[in-house]
Amino acid sequence: MTLPTIVKADGSREVFDPVRLRISLERSGAGAHAAERITEIITNTVTPGAASKEIYARAFALLRKEGRPVAARYALRRALLELGPSGHPFEDLVSHLYRAEGWQVETRKMIRGKCVAHETDFYASHPERGEYLAAELKYHNDPGYKTDLKVALYVKSRFDDIFACDPAVRACPIDRGLLVTNTKFTSEAIAYAECVGVELLGWGYPTDNNLFMRLSRAKVYPVTTLTSLTRTEKNQLIRQGTIAVDEILRDRHALDALHLPSERVGRLLAEAEGLIALSHPLHGTVSV
Prior knowledge:
The chain has 2 domains: 5-66, no CATH class; 68-288, Trna Endonuclease, Chain: A, domain 1 (3-Layer(aba) Sandwich). Helices cover 45% and strands 16% of the residues. The chain is built from 12 helices and 9 strands. Strands 3-4-5-7-9 form a 5-stranded mixed β-sheet, sandwiched between helices. Strands 1-2 form a two-stranded antiparallel ribbon. The chain has a two-stranded parallel ribbon with strand order 6-8. A hairpin with a 4-residue loop joins strand 4 (117-126) and strand 5.
């Protein structure tokens, strides 16, 4: 069987890979049988020149019939894209992730470098481990956009100024610098960062501990993953400062502003509890 060529979000073309789709479905929490069946349906219906987003939408619709929590995690990458248009909700979500991992976090903190002061998007400390890090966060609404070399160069120069503080005057406030994005990095950005020692965290990088894996492991999911909510309702929760699903489960009054009937609240909470209950994937990302 000759597999068709499809168009990815960044405009590039590649041969449709059913194995990759099946693995993505299984990493989302779908059972092997359901993943195989959905993959077979998609493989038999995908046409040459189809957009990857069309394939994702079809797979998501089929997966949603299997169970909303699994479909919600499969939609995690798209859910991150819905946090915008500003980058502040993404900053809040990453802060929530690090707090769940045991860090103390401050956002938009001013840190004095050797030459000038820098406003860092994210500052985290782990006193028990004696670790202090600052991060630059780059949020994108476009699934095809990749954080590129010039961003890595810019971030490296900022961290260099912070690291260059004079120890005779004061201790350096951080020992690690991090560049975080909700999408992917270009190969040039990765090569440069690995060469000069800038840590990267993105959708598919690093391969053994990327953003998808860390969010899944910590059970930190944005409210935009919930399929039981409309786009308007998601935006309302974000505006009131409710960013993560576990915040709803800890304080169900967070839903009061939506004025939902009790039946919808019940379905929503069941989906949220099911999503949090999913075991985290051992490796990889959901590729859509």
